[in-house]
Specification:
The protein is α/β, with parallel strands linked by helices. It contains ten helices and twelve strands.
């Protein structure tokens, strides 16, 4: 991407502390995994710090989209900012599939955001950029996407004997791998690192529409379920299969993509933070692995780290 070209950024976000949210969630919950608070919790204001990191690292920043359920808006967000655009699910998603609590269903609609730039960045709200981040870390000089493999392998579809023993996430990865096996040949695949994902809007739309049956099934699932696919892995593996992306080596991934699990056993998070500080990372994902009652020690430790690393409010925060 040439310097001087503004790029839009899309966040998906929800906060289960919003009045009435738990009651609505309970109306549709059928199994314990459906009410997993790690999917809906925003107890550390991670997106506030993600925006601070974004504004510091990306001088050519276009519109920042917040895709969320109605009527939620972060209370600290300055929605009058000219670069902020809040879009609620019902503005781009069909009424019959709402409400949805399935992030896989939600992100399959990204290309429908009104006015979105042709190339954009998609962020989970727990990803923060470091000062050393540059857009070139996400694409090569000839415009191919850079993809960073994670250490975990994707479960092979034929290896899953009992789907009930698998998490909905693993089932979605296995189903995504099955589609890519059919299109590009059977092989073992690594999961992709938690990362800011650079997306070509037309290509994303084409990938979603070329798998319309399974995407429709994913969209129709209010929670992650068997038979769903992960649009992020589907897009990246498709770009690799079409030779429009390059797969970085594992050492580059370790030097580039940081991962800090937020654990109730606080020494685990402490050691991960320590390792993250010692490496010259480009971004860090703070993944919620808390139980129902998050460790106060871990929360205090991570808040302290975030405030020390990103002390200056962004222009997107209310004064």
């Amino acid at each position: 991407m040439r310097q001087g070209n503004a790029i839009d950024v899309v966040y998906t976000w929800v906060d289960d502390r919003w009045p009435g949210y738990h009651e609505e969630l309970a109306r549709f919950t059928e199994k314990p995994a459906d009410s997993d608070p790690s999917r809906t919790r925003d107890n550390l204001d991670l997106m506030r710090y993600s925006l601070r990191s974004l504004e510091r690292a990306l001088p050519d920043l276009g519109t920042v989209y917040f895709l969320t359920c109605r009527p939620q808006v972060p209370e600290w967000l300055d929605t009058s900012h000219p670069k902020i655009r809040v879009v609620h699910h019902d503005q781009i998603m069909s009424a019959e599939i709402l409400p949805t609590f399935n992030s896989l269903a939600i992100i399959s609609h990204l290309h429908l955001l009104p006015g979105l730039s042709e190339r954009f960045l998609y962020f989970d709200d727990d990803i923060l950029l470091t000062p050393s981040f540059e857009i070139r870390h996400l694409e090569t000089d000839d415009g191919k996407f850079r993809i960073y493999p994670w250490k975990y392998w994707v479960p092979r579809p034929e290896e899953i004997r009992n789907p009930a023993d698998q998490t909905p996430w693993n089932l979605a990865l296995a189903e995504t791998a099955r589609l890519c096996d059919r299109a590009f040949g059977t092989r073992a695949r690594r999961q992709v690192c938690h990362m800011p994902l650079l997306i070509d809007k037309a290509s994303w739309q084409r990938v979603m529409e070329s798998h319309d049956e399974v995407i429709a099934r994913t969209r129709g699932s209010r929670f992650r379920s068997g038979g769903n696919v992960d649009p992020q892995h589907l897009f990246q593996w498709t770009m690799l299969g079409e030779l429009r992306a390059v797969l970085e080596d594992e050492n580059t991934s370790r030097r580039t993509a940081g991962y800090v699990p937020l654990e109730d056993v606080w020494p685990v998070t402490f050691l991960s933070l320590l390792k993250a500080r010692q490496r010259r990372l480009r971004w860090v994902c703070f993944n919620d692995n808390f139980g129902p009652r998050p460790s106060r020690v871990t929360e205090w430790m991570v808040r302290r780290h975030l405030q020390a690393s990103y002390p200056e409010p962004s222009s997107f925060e209310r004064r």
